[in-house]
Each structure stands twice: as C-alpha cells, then as structure tokens.
Amino acid sequence: MGASLYPFFAWCERTWICREITVHESFFPALETLHLFGLVLLLGTILILSLRLLGLLMPRAPAAELARTFERYAALGLAIMVPSGVLMFIATAVRCYSNTSFWVKMCFLAAALVFHFTYFKRTLRLPESLDSRWRARVAACGALFLWFGVGASGRSIGFFG
Amino acid sequence: MMSLLEFCRLLDRSPIGTEIRESSALFPIIEGIHVLALSLSVGLVLATDLRLMGVVLRNRPASEIWSQFFPWMMSGFGVMFATGALLFWSHALSAYNSTAFRVKLLLLILSGLNAAVYHLTIYRKLDDWDASPVPPLQARLAGWTSLILWAGVITMGRIMAYTF
Predict the structure, then answer these.
(1) Which of B39, B45, B107 to mutate to test the interface with A (most CBs of A within 10 A)?
(2) Structural domain of residue A75, as residue ranges?
(3) What's the predicted TM-score (pTM) here?
(4) Is A44 part of the contact surface with chain B (CB cutoff 8 Å)?
(5) How far B64 CA lies from chain A's nearest CA (Å)?
(6) A38 falls in which pLDDT band (50, 70, 90)?
(7) Domain that holds residue B10
(8) ipTM for this model
(9) How many structural domains are present in chain A?
(10) Which of A15, A57, A103, B124 keeps 20 to 30 A from A141, CA to CA?
C-alpha cells in the first residue's frame, strides 16, 4: 500500500525514540499495558452509551445525561491509547508497514473517529422519540461495529500479519 | 492424590490443550475475545466503582446503577472466565511456572474478597445512603480498592503472556 510512504516508516525506526523503546526491555510491555487501560475506558464507555441507545441499560436516565457523564472517560481512554499506540508504532514501524492488520486497523480507526464525532455524539443528544429510535439503533450498532473492529484488528497485528 | 503441577501437566498435554496451543487461529481468536471482553467486564465494573466513589451519576441512586449494570457486567465476566479457562488449559504448565499468573490469581481473589466484604457490611445499610451523591467512606474505599485491584489484574495478565 502506498510505496511512497515506506521511507517514513523506515525513518521512524531510525529515531532515538525507537532506540529507547527497543533498548529498554520493559518499555514495550508497559506501553501495551497502558494501551489496555485506555481500551477499558474507551470501549467501556462506547458499550455503556451504545447499550443505552438500544434501551438495554439505564433506560430511565436520559442518553444525554449518560453522555455528559461518561464521554470524558472515552476522551481519557483515547488520550491514553493514542500516545501509547504511536510509541508502539514507532518501535515496530517497518513490521507495521507490511502488516495487513495494521492497515485494516487504521481504516477502522479513521471511520470510528469520524462516526463518533459526527453521528454518535449528536445522536446521544437528540430528544428521545419514536422518530429518533432508528437513528439511535444505527448509531449504537455502528459505534460497536467500528470500535470493536479497531480492537479486533489491533489485537491481530501481533498475531497475524 | 494428584499434585497441582501434575494436574497442570495433564491439562497442558491433553488433546484440547494441545489443539488450542498449536492452532494458528484458535489461540489468537480466544485471546482476542478475552482482551475485548475487558470492556464489558472491567469497563462496567469501573462505572459502578466510580458511582461508589461518588464521582459519576451522583444524582441517581447507587442501587439503580448496580441493578442496571450487574447483568451486563456478569455476562462480561462469564466471557472472561470461559475464554480465560481455555487459555489456561492450553498453557497450564507455563501458567503454573509464571509468577505473574500467580499474582493475577491472588489479585482476583482479593477482588472477590473486597466485593464480599462490601456486600456483607456497608451494602447492608444501603437504604441509609442509596441516594447520597457521595457514599460513606467504607463504600468509597471499596470502589477505590476494586479499581486498583483490576488495574493490577490487567497488568499481570499482560505480563504473564510474555513468560509463555
């Protein structure tokens, strides 16, 4: 994919950041653990808000109230996952380049972020009515599919190629 | 009587254990489900911990949060336990020899004890504080303890995979 991008990936592995991460044996596992903490926060929030949109969790609390409460934890999760993910990427950039799962994950991630900030967040704030029920279902199923797609393809970077 | 080590060796060498360990797809898929189900199990536990700590949804009764989140949380732990058991089955010998795995089990037991103590003590007086935005100190401590123990469980789970 995109042969012109290869020099950038190769450059990443020549940086001092990559050297630091690979020299210290416990650095990479620590990044993976942080990445998992972020996953609990981000995917946990997506689950809570999606279940609410489907009417399966906290039906008596307005979706907008749950959104106000939990969205900051999704943001915190993302704020942990992105830097730890970028550092893991820098340390293994050349392997990522030829790893199909990596590219699939990046596509899922781009789609999930766009869907989240345009459709999902807005749906949570719509007044709940019969008219908005289908939109709520689409938002919930879309978010679950896209974010868990990020997770599944991300996990397979280390296992498959 | 069979020792724990012999039992682990038996599991490790059993056809099912061998099949999962050596299959190129089975182990990654089970492991992937185990990791993603963290969001349902620990993710929802975290939400109830935060309510106990008086941090989120303060205007809603603690009992409402608990009864709503509990079934989902438990289904999450069902998935974690089932996939975790299969992963253990396939690497029982490595797990037996792994310090991280032993610490992980210890932290899981402590987490269970924390929940049991909470339910046998301050939870019995729930009627007194159900609607309080900030629950009593003992309940807040139970929330904090749970949060820290689960962070430890995840850390040990991640580390033990390196010893396999």
Answers:
(1) B39
(2) 3-157
(3) 0.94
(4) yes
(5) 8
(6) very high
(7) 4-163
(8) 0.94
(9) 1
(10) A103
